[in-house]
Amino acid sequence: MEDRRAKQIAFSIILLLIILIITSRLSLKLSETFFLICGAAIAAIFAVVTVVVIRIRFNARRKQLEIQLDSQGRELRIEYRFLRKVAGVPTKFRHRELEEATDGFKSLIGRGGSGTVYRGILSDGTAVAVKRIDGEERGEKAFKSEVAAIASVQHVNLVRLLGYCIASTGPRFLVYEFIHNGSLDNWIFVKSSNCGGGGRRNGCLSWDSRCRVAIDVAKALSYLHHDCRSCILHLDVKPENILIDENYRALVSDFGLSKLKGRDESRVVTTIRGTRGYLAPEWILENGVSEKCDVYSYGMVLLEIIGGRRNICKMSKKKFEFFPRIVVEKLRDGKLMEIVDERLVMGGGIDERVLQRMVVVALWCIQEKAKLRPTMAEVVEMLEGRVVIEDPPNTQMLVVDLLSIGDDDDDDENGNRKRGARPRFVEMDGDNPSTSAGYSFAFSTLSGR
Ligand SMILES: Nc1ncnc2c1ncn2[C@@H]1O[C@H](COP(=O)(O)OP(=O)(O)OP(=O)(O)O)[C@@H](O)[C@H]1O
């Protein structure tokens, strides 16, 4: 466009100069002035032609460079996007992109303590779960913990954080890969029972799948504790935070409560949060956490996987049943099959040696004294049958789970624990727990999530 305009101007100037030569030839004949004007006009024509040619060439070169840079930029952008994907670096999404992906946040998958999860499809066809983190300060904390903990880690048994979205105002979002079979609680608990969970039901996970899931979760936690630059404490291990993929393999999710612990630190001080029924006793007593808190929660989950029921089960208004205690008794009496999820016993195919191994590992994990518990790396070894496992010490289970039994208001419609509910410190006496006044000092250290 610019070139055409320059050519038009040059053409007009040259035309004017030629007209000038012709008119001066007619009026001045072949005088000296005519030759002067003629020489100057020819020089001007030459200069105009030179300028136009240089300009056209310059523009052509500039255009070529622009095209070249543009294509290099595009290639770099593609390469960068690819490298981010390969390295697992989360992408920053715009709110509009997430709105489009979730069709206006319409298809709700679930609700947790820190936010609401929606199903979505990204523009490239990737199925995602978009978690909207609610609450100002708490939301900010959960968001930062989650991104800091899993943005840099990669493991087949950890759910992948694909991206995030932070707007200057409004909630924050985390975008995960979508895991098709939902959370483990839907696959192990019986809905109708008091000791089951509420919500969506999927089915009953087979014995073999349960064994695989147990090892998958143990491997994920072992990786977080031992194989990352800092030790990552999950601090909220429970069936709701274990997702099951289409091959019935487990992926640990929800890092909203996680903490990083330096390799030279023995424990990290943090306020008491998490979910009743899975909290290690020392967290409440000493107000510090270590990887042994995850080991405790894992042991509790392992028992629930085997039994297909919650560990703490409300039988009536004042009566509770503590499953780990029953497990200890049945192990002692050699009647372990009686603690297995009835639906699996009916189907058969349970290897009693594997069952015994899993139970013993779980009982080691829930030892009240943290230092007696194995590491998650040892748990993997034990579950895979690579080491001989000694019998766990006889534990009194006096302080069962400081947050496990609360007010009636703290339980949901099925009698199960709600997350973040006010805790009550309990002393177990058979299956009839009572609040222990002697331990009431612990209340002052408690804070809901
Ligand atoms: N990546 C995912 N793919 C499929 N479903 C998911 C995914 N992430 C979460 N969900 C579903 O959404 C539910 C809510 O998840 P979320 O992590 O918010 O809460 P939670 O674990 O139940 O509770 P809390 O946040 O209090 O621990 C889960 O129980 C699970 O069923």
UniProtKB/TrEMBL annotation:
Protein's UniProt keywords contain Zinc: no
Cited SMART domains: S_TKc
Membrane spanning residue stretches: 9-28, 34-54
Ranges where the Protein kinase domain occurs: 103-389
Primary localisation category: membrane
Region annotation Disordered: where it falls in the sequence: 405-438
InterPro entries in alphabetical order: Kinase-like_dom_sf, Prot_kinase_dom, Protein_kinase_ATP_BS, Ser/Thr_kinase_AS
Binding-site positions, ATP: 131
Protease keyword on record: no
Keywords annotated in UniProt: ATP-binding, Kinase, Membrane, Nucleotide-binding, Serine/threonine-protein kinase, Signal, Transferase, Transmembrane, Transmembrane helix
Subcellular location: Membrane
Membrane topology, from the record: Single-pass membrane protein
Similarity remark: Belongs to the protein kinase superfamily.
Name the record gives this protein: Protein kinase domain-containing protein
